[in-house]
Write a structure and sequence with these properties.
Distance between the termini of chain A: 31 Å
Oligomer: heterodimer
Strand order of the largest sheet of chain B: 2-1-3-5-7
CATH architecture of chain B: 3-Layer(aba) Sandwich
Structural class of chain B: alpha/beta
Order of helices and strands of chain A: HHHHHHHHHH
Strand content of chain B: 15-25%
Largest sheet of chain B: 5 strands, parallel
Strand content of chain A: under 5%
Order of helices and strands of chain B: EHEEEHEHEEH
Number of helices of chain A: 10
Helix content of chain A: over 70%
Largest interface: A-B, 30 and 26 residues
Distance between the termini of chain B: 20 Å
Helix content of chain B: 25-40%
Number of helices of chain B: 4
Shape of chain A: globular
Number of strands of chain B: 7
CATH topology of chain B: Rossmann fold
CATH class of chain B: Alpha Beta
Shape of chain B: globular
Largest sheet of chain A: none
Chain lengths: 286, 145
Protein backbone atom coordinates (compact mmCIF):
# COMPACT_ATOMS: atom_id res chain seq x y z
CA UNK A 1 0.00 0.00 0.00
CA UNK A 2 1.42 3.37 -0.93
CA UNK A 3 1.79 6.22 1.56
CA UNK A 4 -0.79 8.35 -0.24
CA UNK A 5 -3.37 5.61 0.30
CA UNK A 6 -2.42 5.44 3.96
CA UNK A 7 -2.77 9.20 4.41
CA UNK A 8 -6.16 9.30 2.71
CA UNK A 9 -7.29 6.46 5.00
CA UNK A 10 -6.06 8.33 8.06
CA UNK A 11 -7.69 11.54 6.84
CA UNK A 12 -10.97 9.69 6.45
CA UNK A 13 -10.73 8.30 9.97
CA UNK A 14 -10.16 11.74 11.48
CA UNK A 15 -12.01 14.12 9.16
CA UNK A 16 -15.08 12.08 8.17
CA UNK A 17 -16.97 12.72 11.44
CA UNK A 18 -16.10 16.41 11.19
CA UNK A 19 -17.19 16.72 7.55
CA UNK A 20 -20.22 14.49 8.10
CA UNK A 21 -21.27 16.52 11.14
CA UNK A 22 -20.83 19.81 9.31
CA UNK A 23 -22.86 18.50 6.38
CA UNK A 24 -25.56 17.42 8.83
CA UNK A 25 -25.50 20.91 10.39
CA UNK A 26 -25.74 22.57 6.99
CA UNK A 27 -28.51 20.15 6.07
CA UNK A 28 -30.51 21.25 9.10
CA UNK A 29 -29.99 24.95 8.34
CA UNK A 30 -30.88 24.57 4.65
CA UNK A 31 -33.94 22.47 5.52
CA UNK A 32 -35.00 25.13 8.04
CA UNK A 33 -34.58 27.92 5.45
CA UNK A 34 -36.66 25.92 2.98
CA UNK A 35 -39.41 25.87 5.63
CA UNK A 36 -38.94 29.63 6.29
CA UNK A 37 -37.38 28.97 9.68
CA UNK A 38 -34.05 30.20 11.01
CA UNK A 39 -32.73 26.79 11.98
CA UNK A 40 -30.14 25.67 14.51
CA UNK A 41 -26.46 26.74 14.52
CA UNK A 42 -24.18 24.79 12.20
CA UNK A 43 -22.49 23.01 15.13
CA UNK A 44 -25.82 21.68 16.41
CA UNK A 45 -25.17 18.00 15.43
CA UNK A 46 -21.96 18.10 17.48
CA UNK A 47 -23.78 19.55 20.50
CA UNK A 48 -26.37 16.79 20.17
CA UNK A 49 -23.76 14.06 20.05
CA UNK A 50 -21.78 15.55 22.96
CA UNK A 51 -24.96 15.72 25.00
CA UNK A 52 -25.92 12.14 24.17
CA UNK A 53 -22.49 10.93 25.31
CA UNK A 54 -22.98 12.70 28.64
CA UNK A 55 -26.38 11.11 29.30
CA UNK A 56 -27.24 7.96 31.18
CA UNK A 57 -26.91 4.77 29.12
CA UNK A 58 -30.17 2.85 29.33
CA UNK A 59 -29.79 -0.62 27.85
CA UNK A 60 -32.69 -2.94 27.17
CA UNK A 61 -30.56 -5.90 26.12
CA UNK A 62 -26.82 -6.06 26.66
CA UNK A 63 -25.97 -7.44 23.21
CA UNK A 64 -27.62 -4.33 21.75
CA UNK A 65 -24.58 -2.25 22.71
CA UNK A 66 -22.26 -4.82 21.17
CA UNK A 67 -24.11 -4.65 17.86
CA UNK A 68 -24.11 -0.85 17.83
CA UNK A 69 -20.38 -0.90 18.50
CA UNK A 70 -19.96 -3.47 15.73
CA UNK A 71 -21.91 -1.22 13.38
CA UNK A 72 -19.60 1.69 14.24
CA UNK A 73 -16.43 -0.37 13.72
CA UNK A 74 -17.59 -1.95 10.46
CA UNK A 75 -18.70 1.37 9.02
CA UNK A 76 -15.24 2.78 9.73
CA UNK A 77 -13.63 -0.33 8.20
CA UNK A 78 -15.84 0.08 5.11
CA UNK A 79 -14.75 3.69 4.75
CA UNK A 80 -11.10 2.82 5.32
CA UNK A 81 -11.25 0.07 2.67
CA UNK A 82 -12.72 2.57 0.23
CA UNK A 83 -10.45 5.51 0.94
CA UNK A 84 -7.25 3.45 1.10
CA UNK A 85 -8.10 2.22 -2.40
CA UNK A 86 -8.98 -1.44 -1.76
CA UNK A 87 -11.39 -3.67 -3.61
CA UNK A 88 -14.77 -2.05 -4.33
CA UNK A 89 -16.56 -5.38 -3.88
CA UNK A 90 -15.07 -5.75 -0.41
CA UNK A 91 -16.31 -2.24 0.39
CA UNK A 92 -19.84 -3.18 -0.66
CA UNK A 93 -19.82 -6.38 1.43
CA UNK A 94 -18.45 -4.64 4.55
CA UNK A 95 -21.09 -1.94 4.02
CA UNK A 96 -23.86 -4.55 3.91
CA UNK A 97 -22.53 -6.19 7.08
CA UNK A 98 -22.56 -2.83 8.91
CA UNK A 99 -26.19 -2.24 7.86
CA UNK A 100 -27.14 -5.74 9.02
CA UNK A 101 -25.61 -5.07 12.45
CA UNK A 102 -27.85 -2.02 12.90
CA UNK A 103 -30.90 -4.13 12.06
CA UNK A 104 -29.81 -6.83 14.54
CA UNK A 105 -29.33 -4.18 17.22
CA UNK A 106 -32.86 -2.89 16.63
CA UNK A 107 -34.26 -6.45 16.69
CA UNK A 108 -32.61 -7.06 20.08
CA UNK A 109 -35.12 -4.96 22.00
CA UNK A 110 -38.61 -6.35 22.44
CA UNK A 111 -40.28 -3.05 21.60
CA UNK A 112 -42.74 -3.27 18.71
CA UNK A 113 -41.60 0.13 17.37
CA UNK A 114 -38.01 -0.94 17.18
CA UNK A 115 -39.15 -4.23 15.62
CA UNK A 116 -41.12 -2.49 12.88
CA UNK A 117 -38.18 -0.14 12.35
CA UNK A 118 -35.85 -3.11 11.86
CA UNK A 119 -38.28 -4.74 9.45
CA UNK A 120 -38.57 -1.55 7.42
CA UNK A 121 -34.80 -1.22 7.35
CA UNK A 122 -34.62 -4.78 5.98
CA UNK A 123 -37.16 -3.81 3.34
CA UNK A 124 -35.01 -0.82 2.40
CA UNK A 125 -31.94 -3.04 2.15
CA UNK A 126 -33.86 -5.33 -0.17
CA UNK A 127 -34.71 -2.29 -2.28
CA UNK A 128 -31.24 -0.77 -2.58
CA UNK A 129 -29.00 -3.84 -2.56
CA UNK A 130 -29.41 -4.80 -6.30
CA UNK A 131 -28.39 -1.30 -7.38
CA UNK A 132 -25.48 -1.25 -4.92
CA UNK A 133 -24.20 -4.43 -6.56
CA UNK A 134 -24.65 -3.06 -10.09
CA UNK A 135 -22.36 -0.10 -9.33
CA UNK A 136 -19.10 -2.12 -9.00
CA UNK A 137 -20.16 -4.35 -11.90
CA UNK A 138 -20.63 -1.32 -14.15
CA UNK A 139 -17.38 0.20 -12.99
CA UNK A 140 -15.54 -3.09 -13.61
CA UNK A 141 -16.88 -3.31 -17.15
CA UNK A 142 -15.38 0.09 -17.94
CA UNK A 143 -12.12 -0.02 -16.01
CA UNK A 144 -11.51 -3.82 -15.86
CA UNK A 145 -10.60 -3.54 -12.20
CA UNK A 146 -12.33 -3.52 -8.81
CA UNK A 147 -9.51 -1.72 -7.02
CA UNK A 148 -10.57 1.79 -6.02
CA UNK A 149 -6.97 3.03 -6.34
CA UNK A 150 -6.92 1.90 -10.00
CA UNK A 151 -10.43 3.17 -10.74
CA UNK A 152 -9.45 6.69 -9.61
CA UNK A 153 -6.56 6.64 -12.09
CA UNK A 154 -8.82 5.77 -15.07
CA UNK A 155 -8.38 8.59 -17.61
CA UNK A 156 -12.03 9.45 -18.54
CA UNK A 157 -14.68 10.20 -15.92
CA UNK A 158 -16.85 7.11 -15.38
CA UNK A 159 -20.01 9.19 -15.76
CA UNK A 160 -19.43 9.18 -19.57
CA UNK A 161 -19.86 5.42 -19.67
CA UNK A 162 -22.17 4.91 -16.71
CA UNK A 163 -24.85 7.65 -16.69
CA UNK A 164 -27.59 5.05 -16.17
CA UNK A 165 -25.80 3.41 -13.26
CA UNK A 166 -25.28 6.87 -11.76
CA UNK A 167 -29.00 7.69 -12.01
CA UNK A 168 -29.84 4.36 -10.38
CA UNK A 169 -27.33 5.13 -7.64
CA UNK A 170 -28.92 8.55 -7.05
CA UNK A 171 -32.27 6.86 -6.57
CA UNK A 172 -31.00 4.58 -3.79
CA UNK A 173 -28.90 7.35 -2.22
CA UNK A 174 -32.18 8.89 -1.06
CA UNK A 175 -32.73 5.71 0.94
CA UNK A 176 -29.19 5.65 2.31
CA UNK A 177 -29.17 9.34 3.27
CA UNK A 178 -32.48 8.70 5.07
CA UNK A 179 -34.38 11.35 3.11
CA UNK A 180 -38.03 11.63 2.14
CA UNK A 181 -39.75 10.05 0.19
CA UNK A 182 -37.84 6.93 1.29
CA UNK A 183 -37.12 7.55 4.99
CA UNK A 184 -39.19 4.62 6.20
CA UNK A 185 -37.08 3.21 9.01
CA UNK A 186 -35.31 6.26 10.40
CA UNK A 187 -35.58 9.90 9.51
CA UNK A 188 -34.24 13.32 10.43
CA UNK A 189 -37.63 14.94 10.84
CA UNK A 190 -40.65 12.98 12.05
CA UNK A 191 -39.35 12.20 15.52
CA UNK A 192 -42.70 11.25 17.03
CA UNK A 193 -43.73 8.90 14.27
CA UNK A 194 -43.28 5.23 13.51
CA UNK A 195 -40.66 6.09 10.90
CA UNK A 196 -38.24 6.83 13.75
CA UNK A 197 -38.74 3.22 14.88
CA UNK A 198 -35.23 1.95 14.26
CA UNK A 199 -33.69 4.08 17.01
CA UNK A 200 -36.55 3.82 19.54
CA UNK A 201 -34.66 1.67 22.01
CA UNK A 202 -31.30 3.41 21.88
CA UNK A 203 -30.47 6.13 24.33
CA UNK A 204 -27.47 8.24 25.28
CA UNK A 205 -24.08 6.94 24.05
CA UNK A 206 -25.59 4.24 21.78
CA UNK A 207 -27.65 6.82 19.92
CA UNK A 208 -24.61 9.08 19.66
CA UNK A 209 -22.60 6.23 18.10
CA UNK A 210 -25.38 5.58 15.59
CA UNK A 211 -25.35 9.28 14.68
CA UNK A 212 -21.56 9.36 14.21
CA UNK A 213 -21.80 6.17 12.13
CA UNK A 214 -24.35 7.93 9.95
CA UNK A 215 -21.82 10.74 9.36
CA UNK A 216 -19.11 8.25 8.39
CA UNK A 217 -21.61 6.57 6.09
CA UNK A 218 -22.61 9.84 4.43
CA UNK A 219 -18.99 10.75 3.70
CA UNK A 220 -18.42 7.28 2.22
CA UNK A 221 -21.49 7.68 -0.02
CA UNK A 222 -20.31 11.11 -1.17
CA UNK A 223 -16.96 9.41 -1.90
CA UNK A 224 -18.74 6.93 -4.17
CA UNK A 225 -20.33 9.86 -6.04
CA UNK A 226 -16.86 11.38 -6.35
CA UNK A 227 -15.62 8.15 -7.94
CA UNK A 228 -17.76 8.87 -11.02
CA UNK A 229 -15.94 12.18 -11.61
CA UNK A 230 -12.53 11.17 -10.24
CA UNK A 231 -10.23 12.42 -13.06
CA UNK A 232 -11.35 16.03 -12.45
CA UNK A 233 -11.31 16.29 -8.61
CA UNK A 234 -13.00 19.69 -8.27
CA UNK A 235 -15.92 18.55 -10.42
CA UNK A 236 -16.16 15.46 -8.22
CA UNK A 237 -16.36 17.46 -4.98
CA UNK A 238 -18.82 19.90 -6.55
CA UNK A 239 -20.98 17.05 -7.87
CA UNK A 240 -21.03 15.37 -4.44
CA UNK A 241 -22.12 18.61 -2.73
CA UNK A 242 -24.67 19.41 -5.44
CA UNK A 243 -26.19 15.96 -5.17
CA UNK A 244 -26.45 16.32 -1.40
CA UNK A 245 -28.23 19.64 -1.93
CA UNK A 246 -30.55 17.93 -4.40
CA UNK A 247 -31.30 15.28 -1.76
CA UNK A 248 -32.19 18.00 0.76
CA UNK A 249 -34.51 19.57 -1.79
CA UNK A 250 -36.18 16.24 -2.54
CA UNK A 251 -36.44 15.64 1.21
CA UNK A 252 -38.31 18.89 1.73
CA UNK A 253 -40.60 18.69 -1.26
CA UNK A 254 -41.81 15.08 -1.22
CA UNK A 255 -44.24 13.23 0.99
CA UNK A 256 -43.17 9.88 2.40
CA UNK A 257 -44.00 6.94 0.11
CA UNK A 258 -45.25 3.48 1.02
CA UNK A 259 -42.81 0.59 1.06
CA UNK A 260 -44.40 -1.00 -2.01
CA UNK A 261 -43.49 2.05 -4.07
CA UNK A 262 -40.01 2.08 -2.57
CA UNK A 263 -39.36 -1.53 -3.50
CA UNK A 264 -40.91 -1.36 -6.97
CA UNK A 265 -39.31 1.93 -7.97
CA UNK A 266 -35.87 0.91 -6.68
CA UNK A 267 -35.89 -2.39 -8.51
CA UNK A 268 -37.25 -0.86 -11.71
CA UNK A 269 -34.65 1.91 -11.59
CA UNK A 270 -31.93 -0.69 -10.98
CA UNK A 271 -33.20 -2.84 -13.85
CA UNK A 272 -33.91 -0.09 -16.39
CA UNK A 273 -31.10 2.39 -15.72
CA UNK A 274 -28.45 0.20 -14.08
CA UNK A 275 -29.12 -2.98 -16.04
CA UNK A 276 -29.80 -1.07 -19.28
CA UNK A 277 -26.55 0.83 -18.97
CA UNK A 278 -24.58 -2.36 -18.36
CA UNK A 279 -26.31 -4.11 -21.28
CA UNK A 280 -25.37 -1.23 -23.61
CA UNK A 281 -21.79 -1.38 -22.35
CA UNK A 282 -21.69 -5.11 -23.10
CA UNK A 283 -22.92 -4.53 -26.65
CA UNK A 284 -20.91 -1.43 -27.51
CA UNK A 285 -17.66 -1.61 -25.56
CA UNK A 286 -15.78 -4.81 -26.28
CA UNK B 1 -20.88 25.68 28.91
CA UNK B 2 -22.08 22.10 28.80
CA UNK B 3 -23.62 20.64 25.67
CA UNK B 4 -26.82 19.57 27.43
CA UNK B 5 -28.23 23.08 27.50
CA UNK B 6 -27.44 23.54 23.82
CA UNK B 7 -29.43 20.53 22.73
CA UNK B 8 -32.44 19.97 24.97
CA UNK B 9 -34.72 17.38 23.44
CA UNK B 10 -38.28 17.42 24.70
CA UNK B 11 -41.06 14.89 24.98
CA UNK B 12 -44.57 16.22 25.19
CA UNK B 13 -47.38 14.37 26.95
CA UNK B 14 -50.99 15.46 27.11
CA UNK B 15 -52.52 14.39 30.44
CA UNK B 16 -56.16 15.40 30.30
CA UNK B 17 -55.66 18.80 28.78
CA UNK B 18 -58.27 20.57 26.68
CA UNK B 19 -55.63 20.73 23.87
CA UNK B 20 -55.14 24.48 24.37
CA UNK B 21 -51.68 24.11 25.91
CA UNK B 22 -50.75 21.32 23.48
CA UNK B 23 -51.41 23.57 20.53
CA UNK B 24 -49.26 26.24 22.14
CA UNK B 25 -46.43 23.75 22.72
CA UNK B 26 -46.58 22.77 19.07
CA UNK B 27 -46.82 26.43 18.06
CA UNK B 28 -43.39 26.92 19.59
CA UNK B 29 -42.02 24.53 16.94
CA UNK B 30 -43.55 26.39 14.00
CA UNK B 31 -41.63 28.89 11.83
CA UNK B 32 -42.88 31.83 13.90
CA UNK B 33 -41.15 30.78 17.11
CA UNK B 34 -38.85 28.05 15.71
CA UNK B 35 -37.36 26.60 18.89
CA UNK B 36 -35.04 24.45 16.76
CA UNK B 37 -32.90 27.62 16.76
CA UNK B 38 -31.90 26.58 20.28
CA UNK B 39 -31.42 22.94 19.32
CA UNK B 40 -34.75 21.92 20.80
CA UNK B 41 -36.26 18.87 19.14
CA UNK B 42 -39.66 17.40 19.92
CA UNK B 43 -38.56 13.75 20.10
CA UNK B 44 -41.71 11.92 21.17
CA UNK B 45 -39.47 9.20 22.59
CA UNK B 46 -38.75 9.21 26.35
CA UNK B 47 -35.42 7.45 25.81
CA UNK B 48 -34.11 10.33 23.70
CA UNK B 49 -35.59 13.16 25.74
CA UNK B 50 -34.11 15.46 28.38
CA UNK B 51 -37.17 17.57 29.15
CA UNK B 52 -40.64 16.23 29.89
CA UNK B 53 -43.43 18.69 29.04
CA UNK B 54 -46.74 17.77 30.62
CA UNK B 55 -49.96 19.56 29.81
CA UNK B 56 -53.24 18.93 31.58
CA UNK B 57 -54.03 17.42 34.95
CA UNK B 58 -53.33 13.82 35.88
CA UNK B 59 -56.23 11.47 36.36
CA UNK B 60 -56.49 7.90 37.60
CA UNK B 61 -56.01 6.52 34.09
CA UNK B 62 -52.86 8.34 33.10
CA UNK B 63 -50.91 8.18 36.37
CA UNK B 64 -49.06 4.98 35.34
CA UNK B 65 -48.35 6.46 31.90
CA UNK B 66 -46.86 9.67 33.27
CA UNK B 67 -44.76 7.65 35.73
CA UNK B 68 -43.67 5.26 32.98
CA UNK B 69 -42.55 8.04 30.66
CA UNK B 70 -40.67 9.73 33.50
CA UNK B 71 -38.89 6.52 34.48
CA UNK B 72 -37.94 5.71 30.88
CA UNK B 73 -36.10 9.01 30.46
CA UNK B 74 -32.34 8.73 30.98
CA UNK B 75 -30.76 10.95 33.67
CA UNK B 76 -30.35 13.94 33.88
CA UNK B 77 -33.94 15.00 33.20
CA UNK B 78 -36.35 17.78 34.14
CA UNK B 79 -40.12 18.03 34.15
CA UNK B 80 -42.08 21.13 33.12
CA UNK B 81 -45.77 21.41 33.97
CA UNK B 82 -47.43 23.60 31.33
CA UNK B 83 -50.69 25.38 31.98
CA UNK B 84 -52.73 25.77 35.12
CA UNK B 85 -54.23 22.26 34.85
CA UNK B 86 -50.78 20.66 34.98
CA UNK B 87 -49.88 22.88 37.92
CA UNK B 88 -52.87 22.32 40.19
CA UNK B 89 -55.61 20.57 38.26
CA UNK B 90 -57.17 23.86 37.20
CA UNK B 91 -60.88 23.85 36.46
CA UNK B 92 -60.86 20.06 36.41
CA UNK B 93 -59.56 19.85 39.98
CA UNK B 94 -62.95 18.94 41.45
CA UNK B 95 -63.63 16.15 38.96
CA UNK B 96 -64.08 12.73 40.56
CA UNK B 97 -61.27 11.13 38.55
CA UNK B 98 -58.72 13.97 38.65
CA UNK B 99 -55.86 13.68 41.08
CA UNK B 100 -54.60 17.26 40.66
CA UNK B 101 -51.42 18.67 39.15
CA UNK B 102 -48.55 16.64 37.71
CA UNK B 103 -46.59 17.37 40.89
CA UNK B 104 -48.76 14.80 42.69
CA UNK B 105 -47.19 11.99 40.68
CA UNK B 106 -43.67 12.97 39.58
CA UNK B 107 -41.30 15.72 40.78
CA UNK B 108 -41.89 18.89 38.74
CA UNK B 109 -39.03 21.38 38.28
CA UNK B 110 -40.70 24.28 36.47
CA UNK B 111 -44.32 25.42 36.43
CA UNK B 112 -45.49 27.48 33.47
CA UNK B 113 -48.82 29.10 34.40
CA UNK B 114 -51.47 30.24 31.96
CA UNK B 115 -54.70 29.09 30.40
CA UNK B 116 -53.52 28.40 27.82
CA UNK B 117 -49.81 29.08 28.44
CA UNK B 118 -48.44 31.29 25.67
CA UNK B 119 -45.60 29.97 23.48
CA UNK B 120 -43.34 32.75 24.79
CA UNK B 121 -44.05 31.61 28.35
CA UNK B 122 -43.36 27.99 27.40
CA UNK B 123 -40.03 28.92 25.80
CA UNK B 124 -39.25 30.96 28.93
CA UNK B 125 -40.06 27.93 31.08
CA UNK B 126 -37.79 25.69 29.00
CA UNK B 127 -34.95 28.21 29.30
CA UNK B 128 -35.44 28.21 33.08
CA UNK B 129 -35.44 24.41 33.03
CA UNK B 130 -32.09 24.41 31.22
CA UNK B 131 -30.38 25.95 34.25
CA UNK B 132 -31.88 23.26 36.44
CA UNK B 133 -30.90 20.61 33.89
CA UNK B 134 -27.28 21.70 34.01
CA UNK B 135 -27.27 21.65 37.82
CA UNK B 136 -28.85 18.20 37.77
CA UNK B 137 -26.22 16.97 35.33
CA UNK B 138 -23.42 18.06 37.66
CA UNK B 139 -25.13 16.37 40.60
CA UNK B 140 -25.72 13.23 38.55
CA UNK B 141 -22.09 13.08 37.40
CA UNK B 142 -20.92 13.47 41.00
CA UNK B 143 -23.26 10.65 42.03
CA UNK B 144 -22.14 8.28 39.25
CA UNK B 145 -18.39 8.79 39.63
Amino acid sequence: MSTSCLTSGLLYLLLAPLIGGLIAGLDRIISARMQTRVGPPIWQPFYDVCKLFSKEHLVVNRSQTLFVFGLFIFMIITGLLFFTGYDLLLVIFAFTLASILLILAAYKAGSPYSFIGAERELMQMMAYEPMVLLVPIGIYMVTKTFSVAEIVKYETPLIYYLPGVFIGLLHILTIKFRKSPFDLSSTHHAHQELVKGLTTEFSGPSLALIEITHWYENVLLLGIIFLFFAPIPWVGVLAALLIYFLEIMIDNSFARMKWEFLLKSSWWMALVFGGGNILLLMLLKR
Amino acid sequence: MSSIIKSPWVIHYDGSSCNGCDIEVLAALTPRFDVERFGIINTGNPKHADIFLVTGSVNEQNIPIVKNIYEQMPDPKVVIAIGICAATGGIFKECYNVQGGVGEVIPVDVYVPGCAARPEAIIDGVVKALGILQKKQEEWKAKVS
